[in-house]
Specification:
With 457 residues, this protein is α+β, with helices and mostly antiparallel strands. Helix content is 37%, strand content 24%.
């Protein structure tokens, strides 16, 4: 048999000039087939409906010495049918022809997978187009002004109709707004505030909303920002919602509810369990939540840094005395901002259901370190000087004692000398508090009437 140099064949047939198989060889991966039964049979009998192709292949081979590649479905003795690509070569003299076949099943599988992948890509493409269409419809029909700007230079990448109208005259074309620097569209008086907000968005991913004034009439808008990623780099998603003119200072309607809603201090009412029943806009800004519905029914303790102590002390003192004045605590907003506040509260009745009204005033800017805090700082600084001279265990014990004394004093001051309330603030029993007072030789304030009453009972 003549040696054929070329691609590795899966099936090799030695044919006589009439197309009868004289020898048959299979590649190792097809060696399980018993092709001895092919010997002495015409090649056209063991292919599936391709006798005409076999005849043309043999005629081409006799005429030119080698035939073109043709695809044939080869049927094997086991019943397996495989798509194969054959070419035949004329041997010297009357020795016959050599048919060489390559299995096309792997190619067919690859083609099928390619078609499937193309169809998947096509489906994904149309899904993306549908999502993009919905996105544009939602953004364009929104009452809010929506813009996309680059983080790097604050150039506007995209803006909806409301944004175009808010940032300029109605006659301005949208393509004139795209590419402009966002800060240049903001009045100079508000730019520093906007820059601060955008820096916080860049660093933290989001920030509380701020009020900006747009247009010749300085119409107030609530500006919110968030950070998003894109192929072109990080982007700011900016949303601006118009603020009702009735909410502007000097335009407050003449009714108590509107007055409370527009007060600069946060005002809420809670029930006996601490659940919020009413809240004004200043409280929403304090806890960094966008809608009143999101806070109604929620516990106030969820935003207090010492939720159990502060709320329980507040409610118990209101129930005892009817009012509480200037209770200092900290509110932690949903975006992580902590704000020092003073709370004043009073009890009132509403259709037989007792309520507590609270005013929360932001005092972060005017609070200054107290003398007690200075004393604590001095005491801890003195301990730092002992590092290297005193064993670590003794240093830790001394530090704990200094801090513990400081907070026991602070709790007593916060509770106006009432040791029961002070113990609640510290999360201790009265006996544990007495033990600490004795240990640190702290002067014990006289007991309140409430405590004497409790002892007498």
């Amino acid at each position: 048999m003549a040696e054929f140099h070329g691609p590795r064949a899966d099936v090799t047939l030695l044919l006589d000039m009439d197309g009868v198989i004289r020898e048959a060889t299979l590649s190792p991966n097809m060696s399980s087939e018993n092709v001895d039964v092919w010997l002495g049979r015409p090649w056209s009998e063991i292919v599936d409906g391709a006798s005409e192709k076999i005849e043309r292949i043999m005629q081409d081979t006799k005429r030119t010495g080698i035939s073109a590649f043709r695809q044939i479905t080869q049927r094997f003795p086991s019943g397996l049918e495989l798509p194969m690509e054959f070419t035949t070569v004329l041997l010297g003299g009357r020795a016959g022809m050599l048919a060489i076949g390559k299995n096309l099943q792997a190619v067919a599988e690859l083609q099928a997978r390619l078609i499937s992948a193309q169809q998947t890509i096509e489906r994904d493409y149309w899904k993306l187009r549908e999502i993009e269409t919905r996105y544009r419809l939602v953004i364009e029909d929104s009452n809010e002004a929506v813009l996309l700007t680059k983080v790097r230079d604050l150039r506007i990448v995209e803006a909806n109709r409301t944004a175009t109208s808010a940032l300029g005259t109605s006659g301005r074309r949208r393509d004139n707004l795209v590419g402009r620097e966002f800060l240049q569209e903001i009045p100079a008086t508000d730019r520093e505030l906007v820059e601060q907000m955008l820096r916080r968005v860049r660093d933290q991913g989001k920030a509380p909303g701020i009020v900006v004034h747009l247009g010749e009439e300085a119409v107030p808008w609530m500006l919110r920002g968030s950070l998003m990623t894109s192929n072109a780099g990080p982007m700011f998603l900016l949303q601006m919602a118009p603020i009702d003119k009735a909410a502007q200072p000097g335009l407050v309607p003449d009714n108590p509810e509107a007055l409370i809603d527009n007060l600069p201090d946060a005002v809420i009412s809670i029930d006996g369990g601490g659940a919020i029943k009413r809240a004004n806009r200043a409280f929403l800004e304090l806890v960094e939540i966008g809608s009143t519905e999101a806070v109604i029914g929620e516990k106030l303790s969820g935003w207090l840094t010492r939720p159990g102590a502060d709320l329980s002390v507040l409610i118990s003192n209101v129930e005892r005395h009817g009012t509480v004045r200037l209770l200092s605590t900290t509110i932690q907003g949903e975006l992580g901002t902590e704000t020092e506040v003073e709370i004043s509260a009073a009890a009132y009745g509403l259709d037989g259901h007792p309520r507590i009204a609270l005013v929360l005033r932001n005092v972060a800017r005017r609070l200054s370190p107290t003398a007690e805090h200075d004393n604590l700082r001095v005491a801890l600084a003195a301990l730092n000087e002992s590092v290297g001279k005193t064993p670590l265990r003794k240093l830790v014990k001394s530090t704990v004692e200094v801090v513990e004394q400081h907070y026991v004093r602070a709790a007593l001051e916060l509770a106006n000398g009432n040791r029961t309330s002070a113990a609640e603030i510290l999360g201790l029993s009265r006996q544990s508090l007495y033990a600490k007072l004795d240990r640190y030789d702290l002067s014990q304030p006289e007991e309140s009437d409430d405590e004497e009453t409790e002892k007498g009972s």
